[in-house]
Amino acid sequence: MVFEFSIDLEQELSRLLEGHHCVVPSAVVKELHFLAEHGPSPKKRKAAASLKLLKRYDIIKTASLKADDAVIEAAKKTKGVVLTNDTELRKRLQHDSIPIVFLRGKKKLALEE
Question: I need a surface site. Which of 24, 40, 50, 108 has the fewest CB within 10 A?
């Protein structure tokens, strides 16, 4: 969403989550590498750009190999907040009472607790 709607991710996260520390599960990184190499053209570009952005953040290992499962595992383990606009993942996070940051109005991030 960062590349589609040109939001300032760090500024928006700082506005919502004072003193935040971003981590990315290794399964997500693996999926992005796959998409950057084998995905359809638009996804390929976004995945490659995402991999560059992720260099700013810490990568953590999880037991889960699927990206969505790894995100949920990492959020539970760190008592963290998840940044996503993925509808299915949001439903799973809500079911597990994990706070979510999502894009609202194509301009701002919002926190759902």
Answer: 40
